[in-house]
Amino acid sequence: MQLREHLEEFCRRRDGGPYPAYRDLRGRWALDGVDLEILRVQGDPFASPSKARLWIPWSQTSLNPADGTRLGAQGCRQMGRIDVESARAVAVRDFLGRTVGAWLEKHSPRQTNGRSLARMMPHGQEILDRTAVLLHEDAVEVRLTLDLPARGRRILGRLAHELLIDFPEDLVARVFADGVRLDALERHVAACEDFAFLQSRLEDEGWIGFVADGSSLARRAGNDERPLLGEDVVLFESPISMRQTVELPHAGPTTGMALEPGVTLLCGGGFHGKSTLLRALSSAIVPHVPGDGRERVAVRPDAQSVRAEDGRAIHEMDLRPFLRDLPLGRSTGSLTTENASGSTSQAAAILEAMQAGSRFLLIDEDTSATNFMIRDPLMERLLARDREPIQPLLHQARTLFEKLGVSLVLVVGGSGEYFRVADRVLVLDTYRPIDETHRAREIARERDPLNPDDTEAGRFREAMETARSFSSGPKANGPRGSRVKALAPDRITVERVEVQLHGMESLRDIASSRFLSRIVSWRQRELSGTRSGEMRDVLALKGAVEAEWSRAGLDGFGPEPAVDVAAVRWLEVAGTFDRLRSRPAPRVDWGLEPE
To answer: Going by DSSP bridges, is the β-strand pair 497-500/2-3 parallel, antiparallel, or unpaired?
Structure first.
């Protein structure tokens, strides 16, 4: 370990020197009350930022040192799931990350153009298992990215001193020594622990979801996950027929709507809250921060939203449960395409989710392919079943639940045909659900029931058991393996080939897609090594991912510690590999003359 005065000397002597001299900073430096460790140094001022971490002894914080030794697991034991044992540790780390991030926004050293030199990925409404802050027996670890300052390609020594010495010491003094609001920290922990307990109760009670009365589900905008505020906000109120009470560790007795397994319809007029409720359920696989409005909404940890994704790639998927043989004798027993239609992509998404372990699917008709969801009686009179390859979800819903144990929550506002397969029907009226199951069943008696089919169940089981391989993705251009980068929560690139992940609505934080990028890069490296065979097979890859997670957690899947990533489930990992493209989009010459 090197001393503070040596780092001061570096900043003084190297002022105005060539930028590559920053490489000498790699290693650990002892500052006043904090250690700075430079993990990776950027090769150029315009390259990806450097990576660093701070080691802050518990004695330099206002926190209880027991938080580092008695919190149990550092993170999720099961990848992507915050359980009761790990909830407190994850919540403390998440809160400290938010506290540091808020301080950085105001006080980080800045380049002459105003750009912040020290950054931490912004935390959203979800409490996630992240690497931004970790807890150890002897210290709190904070991980950051640093833009080492320069003018052109020359070192700015004074600004480097501010970034590498003054800033870490100020962070400890102003944030950790007396800037942590312990009352807010406890509320954060309570929200996380209550959620983890509620999610565990779902399994004990045999429910698939729970929405507490008084929850505020509406969001400010489609791209803003913060709660909608104002006098017009309608708080959730459960139907009496579905109302249950659970005892939570911090919130105490909590009454709300308990969803039982089966096929549940969310109906109602436009703008009455159907999709809002579905979106709240789809986001409830992880806890939310206090004040979010969805703190006491939880679903089973294997819940997965499914939608149509025109143009996505599909690899070796047995789609026969939903798509019979196509015209000209083409088979759907092992379909591979780089340009799936809406119905084909939605069929693939359901089967992929089931193969990855999901037994709870959430589907909104607004984001679904119409011909995949339903074929009405008039169309059936025109097109006999043997002339239509697509077997709509309507005809498979009962088979999915009764034969395969897959529950469905469906937003359906345009057709009452789904009354024939529903176990319960909720009508949203001004954002409040009303149980109209009895009335819907009376209406459905006018039509023949759609019963589960053993033959169809057999096709589903064959599709689930069929061995298949993931795409190897685009070929790497160099010996270091594929270049993988997260662009947004729902977009990554592999060798500059964009992979759209918007079909997985559980991805709402770029830190999650950064972790997916890390896993993809790890797998691409392994493909060129001795494990290339198992890295293609779905089941073998799952075993390898779970083994690496058990070995190293969030710091696995890479040669250096992960900075600013958040855990995901195997469902998201598998879904990412399912959507990999093998080649970039071709360059098109439109033959246009320049003006």
So the answer is: unpaired
Give the integer Cα–Cα distance in Å for 545 and 522: 10
Distances in whole angstroms, Cα of residue 210 to Cα of each of 227, 242, 433: 19, 10, 13
> Of the ranges 366-380, 406-420, 522-536, which one carries the lowest mean pLDDT score?
522-536
CA distance 436 to 309: 32
**pLDDT computed for residue 356 by the predictor:** 95
Q: Is 426 within 8 Å of 239 (Cβ atoms)?
A: yes
Measured distance CA(91)–CA(32) in Å, rounded: 28
Whole-angstrom CA distances from 474 to 194, 494, 541 are 43, 7, 18
Burial class, 33, CB count within 10 angstroms (exposed 0-12 / middle 13-18 / buried 19+) = middle
Q: How many residues does the chain have?
A: 595
Q: How many CB atoms lie within 10 A of CB 46?
A: 10
Percent of the chain with pLDDT over 90: 77
Query: Which pLDDT score is estimated for 78?
Result: 87
For tokens 């009496």, the residue is 240
Q: What backbone phi and psi angles, to 5 degrees, belong to 356? A: -80, -5
Give the C-alpha separation, 375 to 420, whole Å: 13
Please give the distance of CA 235 from its chain centroid, rounded to a whole number.
26
Q: What is the pTM of this model?
A: 0.94
CB 305 within 8 A of CB 362: yes
Quote the pLDDT of residue 72: 44
Q: Which amino acid type is present at position 63?
A: L
In 3-state terms, the chain is what percent helix, strand and coil (to 5)?
Answer: 35, 20, 40
Q: DSSP letters along 26-39, please? A: -EEEE-SS-EEEEE
Q: Are 474 and 581 in contact (CB under 8 A)?
A: yes
CB neighbour burial string for 540-562, b if at least 16 within 10 angstroms, e if fewer: ebbebbeebbeeebbbbbbeebb
Q: How far is CA 324 from the centre of its chain?
A: 33
**pLDDT at position 477, please?**
60
365 CB contacts (<8 Å, ≥6 apart)? 373, 410, 411, 412, 413, 414
pLDDT (tens digit, 9 = 90+) per residue, 85-107?
A: 899 999 999 999 999 999 999 99
Interval 254-303: pLDDT, tens: 999 999 999 999 999 999 999 999 999 999 999 999 999 999 999 999 99
DSSP annotation of 469 reads B
Report residue 550 as tokens: 């058990």
d(CA 386, CA 388): 6
Three-class SS state of 449: coil
Give the CA distances from residue 543 to residues 21, 524, 570, in Å, rounded to whole numbers and listed in that order: 43, 16, 10
d(Cα 258, Cα 255) in Å, to the nearest integer?
9
Angstrom distance (rounded) from CA 187 to CA 276: 26
Distance of alpha carbon 14 from alpha carbon 36, whole angstroms: 19
Listed residue (30, 51, 32) closest to 555, CA to CA: 51
Contacts of 25 (CB under 8 A, 6+ apart): 7, 10, 38, 41, 148, 164
Q: Please check whether residue 20 is in contact with residue 150, taking contact to mean a CB–CB distance below 8 angstroms.
A: no
